[in-house]
Amino acid sequence: MSFQHPRTTLARLALSLATFAVPIAARAQSVDLVAAGSLNLPLSAVADAFTAKTGIKVTQTYSPSGTLRQEIEGGLRPDVFASADTAGPRALEQEGLAGPVQTFANNQIVAVFRSGFGQTVNPSSLLGVLLDASTRVGTSTPVADPLGDYTQLIFQKADAVVPGAAATLDAKRDELVANPSAPPVPAGANSLVYFVDTTKTVDAFISYVTSAVQARALDPTLRIVYLPRELTVQAPFGLTVLNGASPDGQQFAQYILSPRGQQILASYGFIPACRLWDRNLFRNFC
User: Fold this and answer.
1) In whole numbers, what is the pLDDT of the chain averaged over residues?
2) Average pLDDT, stretch 274-278?
3) 200-232 pLDDT, tens per residue?
C-alpha cells in the first residue's frame, strides 16, 4: 500500500470538491417568468414568497398574454409562461415549445363604472346600460389580450338576450388596452383608474374582477357591477413551463400551484384552480 503525503491528499480532495462545485456554482439561481399584465401584483407576491423560501430570484416581465405568446413563438425563451387564458399556452405546447398546460387560477369578468355614472346599475340592468348610445364602453383588444377575447364572448352571449346586441357593442367598444394606437397610460398609473375616472375616456370598462378590485382600492369612487348569469363566461388562467427551462423554473411553477401559491392568488380575488399538477406532484388542496 502506497503512502500519500497529507498535503497531496488535501490537494486532491480540494480538486475533487472543486470539480463538483463547478456545476453547482454554474447552475442558475433564478427563474425567468413572463406573465399576463393582470397578474402583476399577485404573481409578484407569489414570487417574493418563493424567493424568501428558496433563495431563488424570479425575473418578471408582464405584458398582454397574446403578445407574449407571439414573442415566444418568435424566439423568446423564458422558463415559465403564465397566461390569462389556456389557449395561448396550449398552442405553445402543441407547437412543441412548452410542456403540459395547467389551469392555475380562475377569474371573473365585471363592468367597472366611473364615479357619477351607473350608480343605480345592477346585473339585471347592465346590458341595457351598456347598449345605450350615450354609454362609452372601454375594452381590451382581442387576440392581443385574452380579456378582449372574453369580452367578445360576452358580446356574443348578449345577442341571445337582445338580438343585434353583439354588433352594437362591438361597434361602440373602445379598445384601450393592448392596442398600440390607444392613448398611453402614464408610468405608474393604473389603466382602469386612468381611463375610467382620471380622464373619463369611457363610462364603463369590461374588466377582470381582480383588476377591478385593485383599481377600486386606488379609487374608491369606482363601482363594480357583476355580469348577469346569462352573460357570464369562464376565464381560466393557464401556466406552462417552456422546453429547456431550468429546474428552478419547474420548481417555481410548482410553487404557484402549491397551497401557499394558491392562497396568495386567492387573496387577490382569484378562484383557486383545484386541480392536480402533472404526475401527481400535488394533492388536491381545495
Assistant:
1) 89
2) 46
3) 999 999 999 999 999 999 999 999 999 999 999
Cα distances from 77 to residues 31, 80, 191, in angstroms, run 11, 9, 28
Task: Please give, one letter per residue, the 3-state secondary structure of the chain.
Answer: CCCCCHHHHHHHHHHHHHHHHHHHHHCCCEEEEEEEHHHHHHHHHHHHHHHHHHCCEEEEEEECHHHHHHHHHCCCCCCEEEECCCHHHHHHHHCCCECCCEEEEEECEEEEECCCCCCCCCCCCHHHHHHCCCCCEEEECCCCCHHHHHHHHHHHHHHHHCCCHHHHHHHHEEEEECCCCCCCCCCCCCHHHHHHHHCCCCCEEEEEHHHHHHHHHHCCCCEEEECCHHHCCCEEEEEEEECCCCHHHHHHHHHHHCHHHHHHHHHCCCEECCCCCHHHCCCCCC
Let me know: does 47 contact 270? Beta carbons within 8 Å: no
Taking only the tens place, the pLDDT of each residue in 229-253 is 999 998 999 999 999 999 999 999 9
Asked if residues 197 and 114 have their Cβ atoms less than 8 Å apart, the reply is yes
- What is the mean predicted confidence (pLDDT) over 28-50? 95
What cell does 88 get?
395561448
The domains of the chain, with CATH numbers, are 29-106+235-280 (3.40.190.10), 109-231 (3.40.190.10)
- Percentage above 90 pLDDT, the chain: 83
d(CA 143, CA 181): 15
The sign of the CA dihedral 58, 64, 66, 71 is negative
C-alpha cell, 153: 364572448
